[in-house]
Amino acid sequence: MQLTLHPEVVTDAVGQALHVLAPFLRAAFECAEPMLAELAAIRSTLGAPPQNIHQDDYTLCSGRPGRLSAFVALQDIDEQMGPTWFLPGTHSDVRRQNALVSRTRKAKMFGTGPVRLGTMPTGSCTLHDTGVLHAGGANHSPHGRWLFHMTFVPEMIQFTCMDYYRPLMHLGVHSVGELERREIRAQDDSETIRLKAIWTSLLEDPEILQLKAKHDKAVWQSKVGEYDLELWMALLRYKVEATVAIAHVGFIATRFSLCDAAAAAPHELRATVAFPVHARA
Fold it and tell me: Which of 70, 213, 238, 270 is the residue whose CA sits 20 to 30 A from 86?
């Protein structure tokens, strides 16, 4: 269920969460003002089936993440309620990603690799790279499982998460710093207009779209063993940085970072933290 930053209780819940999450987001993205990309509530009721194991974004190389996702527990979550399963390190492990096509290899992956289970008390939170393989479990409990869900992106557009900047502009351009202070930026705010102009220009640039298509093809080819993606991405990064357009406002060079995976802890979830959430139903 998609949410907006109104009513005020939603803004307060986001602000409380960011009181703890903001340092992790800034460190992971290596930028001062990450942006809120998505805001939603997720509910799982008795009898809800398990999800298939999946990635939200396809990422294969090490470096800064393109998008980070937070799940905040709005009640205690135990194993009967179908908590989310996470497979740390899979954002940059092609072999483990490819194991999903085989039932035998998938079972072996669960038996040999690390697994983290999102059981947690009310107000706790998981924060993970959206390239990490994960899945919500089956709910065998009479109690519903509610998660307050947020995703974040850096201000500078990244290839694997380009598609999220368009809905972000509809949600509103809100930086982590502003949301920490409970400040909601208006759609006609000058900084909002400036950022939208930059992002729109880049998202519609033919050369950048062509490079994005090459990137997506390289990801696919890496999965079938035809490319060394780390080497290919290193070469492409130089080309992108040389060709990205100068932003229309203020002579600011907007750069792309192509490697969308965890940097600080490549074999673990980005963070697991706890904080109180006082949002009312």
Answer: 213
Determine the Cα–Cα distance for residues 152 and 71; give it in Å rounded to an integer: 12
Alpha carbon distance 235, 82 (integer Å): 42
pLDDT of the chain, 281 residues: tens digit per residue: 888 888 889 999 999 999 999 999 999 999 999 999 999 999 999 999 999 888 888 776 667 888 999 999 999 999 999 999 999 988 877 778 777 777 777 777 777 778 899 999 999 999 999 989 999 999 999 999 999 999 999 988 777 778 888 888 878 889 999 999 998 888 888 888 888 888 888 888 888 888 888 877 777 776 666 445 555 555 565 555 555 544 433 333 333 333 333 333 333 333 333 333 333 33
β-partners of residue 175 are: 35
222 phi and psi angles, rounded to 5 deg: -65, -35
Instruction: State pTM to two decimals.
Output: 0.76
The stretches of 30-142 forming alpha helices (DSSP H) are 94-98, 103-112
How many angstroms from the chain centroid is the CA of residue 49?
23
Return all residues near 201 (Cβ < 8 A) that are at least 6 apart.
245, 247, 248
Distance CA 42, CA 143 (A): 14
Quick one: CA torsion of 156, 158, 164, 165, rounded to 10 degrees? 30
Tell me how far apart the alpha carbons of residues 77 and 124 are, in angstroms, rounded to a whole number: 10
Domains and CATH numbers, the chain: 1-281 (2.60.120)
E strand map for 154-197: none
